[in-house]
Amino acid sequence: MENNQSICLAIDESIRFLDSSPNLKFSSEYSRHKWNGAWWHMAAIHEMGEVDKIPESAIVQAKGWLETQVWQKFIVSPNDHPTSESDKMKMDCCHCELAVYYMILQAYGCDLDHELPWIREWLLKYQLPDGGLNCDPDAYVHSHKSSIVSTLPPLEAILWHTNRDFTEQEAVFLDEGARYLIEHRLVCSKHDGNIINTDWLKPCFPRFFEYDILRGMSYLVEWSRRRNKALPDELIVEGLERLKPYIRAGNMRIGRQVFDPQGPWNGDTFPLLEELSRIGDVSPYLTSQLDRVIEQMSNTVDRQDVSDMK
What per-residue string of b and e applies to 45-54 under the rule 16 or more CB within 10 Å gives b? Predict the structure, then answer.
């Protein structure tokens, strides 16, 4: 109860922050290394499923920023660079940052596919041959290899925010993304089978655009349901086994923080982020994801075996 009260107070503080200024700064040259801007507050509230609590004024400003302050091309070749002085002042976005913005605004009720159609077109355009995406432009010129971290938010944006039948392009995008995750066994190198980053075995919340194994499993489960595709049962079982150290009495506990001072994304925090992400705490949000994975698994695997995983 005390923890719930603390979270409610922290939400209120984030709401006041978002509602406090007519000129919120949504992004900047250093935004990806800073945890205390408007973007981060909105994303944390969205991941809680409380997007309707975001002040409308902040939503309007975020949408306006995307429309007027972002260069609407991913810069891969010299021809992609802006040429006018006004365009040169705009910020270049990455796939995962853009996808998270898209998910926040779509969940709020905005119709970005009508108002800002270039965002969905961008997300679908930059899938690499291996099925993923990469926020490093060099990958499109040299390695042609994707990044799991860069891949999940765009996949989620299309999967979770398409309230109609998928187009052929969207279906291929989602299926290829699933193939990418399956071939990498959610966390492994295709080359040698070793775990790419052991931190990905530690569930975190909120994630923003960070990756963990539960996030990948959640995508595959929803993809299987929405696309009527067979779920890779063995892989999901393996993933649940990897998560066992963080599961207690059916609840998922937080294993790391995205803003770890020793990690690559360290920076200033804010009360809501700290309240939601204490290592060792039960996360109702991650537990809900775990439950959905197990429920889907119970349709194809012996229910008792699935129950034993928890």
Answer: bbbbeebeeb
For domain 2-76+84-309, give the fold: Glycosyltransferase (1.50.10)
**CA gap 178, 131 in Å, rounded:** 8
Structural Rg of the chain based on CA atoms: 19
- The β-bridge partners of 40 are none
With tokens 């270039």, the residue in question is 118
Q: Confirm if 161 and 103 have CB atoms less than 8 A apart.
A: yes
Structure letter (DSSP) for residue 100:
H
What are residue 252's DSSP bridge partners? 247
Q: Is the pLDDT of residue 305 over 70?
A: no
In whole angstroms, what is the distance from residue 94 CA to residue 56 CA?
25
Burial per residue of 68-95, b for 16 or more beta-carbon CB atoms within 10 angstroms, e otherwise: eebbbbbeeeeeeeeeeeeeeeeebbbb
The letter for the amino acid at 50 is: E
Provide the token pair at 68. 């007027």
pLDDT tens, residue by residue, 73-122: 999 999 999 999 999 899 888 999 999 999 999 999 999 999 999 999 99
Most confident of the following: 20-24, 25-29, 225-229: 225-229
Q: What's the CA gap between 66 and 46, in Å, rounded?
A: 18
Q: Count of residues for the chain? A: 310
Domain ranges across the chain: 2-76+84-309
C-alpha 230/C-alpha 285 separation (Å) is: 26
| Tokens at 156, concatenated | 């989620």
Closest CA to 161 of 213, 116, 204, 94: 116
Angle at 43 (CA atoms; ends 37, 47), nearest 5 degrees:
150
